[in-house]
Design goal:
- The chain is of the alpha+beta class.
- It has two domains: 2-205, Metalloenzyme, LuxS/M16 peptidase-like (Cytochrome Bc1 Complex, Chain A, domain 1, 2-Layer Sandwich); 226-410, Cytochrome Bc1 Complex, Chain A, domain 1 (2-Layer Sandwich), CATH 3.30.830.
- It has 16 helices and eleven strands.
- The strands form two sheets. The chain has a six-stranded mixed beta sheet, with helices on both faces. Strands 7-11-8-10-9 form a five-stranded mixed beta sheet, sandwiched between helices.
- β1 and β2 (12-17) form a beta hairpin.
- α9 packs across α12.
- It is globular.
- The protein starts with a strand and ends with a helix.
- InterPro entries: Metalloenz_LuxS/M16 (IPR011249), MPP/UQCRC_Complex (IPR050361), Pept_M16_N (IPR011765), Pept_M16_Zn_BS (IPR001431), Peptidase_M16_C (IPR007863).
- Residues 165-340 form the Peptidase M16 C-terminal domain.
- It holds the Pfam family Peptidase_M16_C.
- One of its GO terms (molecular function) is metalloendopeptidase activity.
Amino acid sequence: MYKRYTLDNGLRIVTEHIPFVKSISIGVWIETGSKHETSENNGISHFIEHMLFKGTTTKTAKEIAETIDGIGGQINAFTSKECTCYYTKVLDSHYELAIDLLADMLFNSKFDKDDMQKEKSVIYEEISMYEDSPEDLVHDLLYQSIFKNSALGLPILGINESLNKINRDSIIEHMNKYYVPNNAVISVAGNFDEDNLLRTIESKFGHWKESKSLALKEETSKYNYGEFYKTKDIEQTHLCLGFKGITLGENKLYPLLVVNNILGGSMSSRLFQNIREERGLVYSIYSYPSTYKGGGLLTIYAGMNPDLLEEVKRLIFNELEELRISGLSALEVNKSKEQLKGNYILGLESTSSRMTSIGKSELLLKKIYSPKEIIEKIDAVKLEDTEKIIKEIIDLNKVTLTVVGKADERE
């Protein structure tokens, strides 16, 4: 059972009490990510995420790590296109300490200039590591290409040039704009005393000053279709196909999930069975939908020997054409729905996953669907719904294709 509270400063708190566990997961969510950046400060959201672990006015970076290690807990963070999340998982007896640590990092981080320079070097290496991972690189190229005219196309890590321009003043400016309580959510899942939990959060976050000027502009993404190549001296060739998808919060996502499951979302999917299992042409092939405010994607990925690129492309397009012409059977749709329900329920087995689910939903949708409601939405998908979504999404004249591989194979 989810509960929702709002402090006087606009900070939203969402909780799920799970009395039969001995852990608690706590996340502080901020609606800022690479989508809220420009080419000039690209990477600043991710950089701030790193810097909050580099020491506060009361603790060094080592002491932050020792504080959470000393109670056998976990602390981490991530930055995405649309949000940043700082989260901990601890035994239920230690949640006050965890909340205190998150508040200390959020409000008292020093942003020391020497630490900033060291952390930039770490992120330069992270960017290089990403460049050395062609599967990641081809997905990044897809976003940069299909969202060429939208902030969704900016890489989460930024690039060396934009990262180099970030300084303490630009960090403070960005945080003053986005790190405000009316642009944040605290999500909690696990075992806790409700009254004490709320008192603890109020005491640590109640002084956070609301922003009267917060205005998140939501743009409708513009899609850019075509073929894009990046030369890389590697053994495999990596391919992505991107189609315009579903916007975050739309109920059309559920028919798309059913279709995706059958197309390339599992080991029993058509793409996996036909291209990997029956023909042995690839090691990895899959598809998945992504949803954002103002836009979305359906992505297909495959990695193969360079000599097989044209054949794999042809087979993928054949499967897509077959899907458009013949659609799905009622048996396939029902099997896919059962698989989706099973995956969804199994994915809620930990306090971390529940904290993430309710926190992200509240932050981006201002609404939380219960597991029962999600199951009902999956059950409600009909065969005709899948036919409509196939016709809407899989338009073979509106597709972006990206390839990372050797230049001579590309030709």
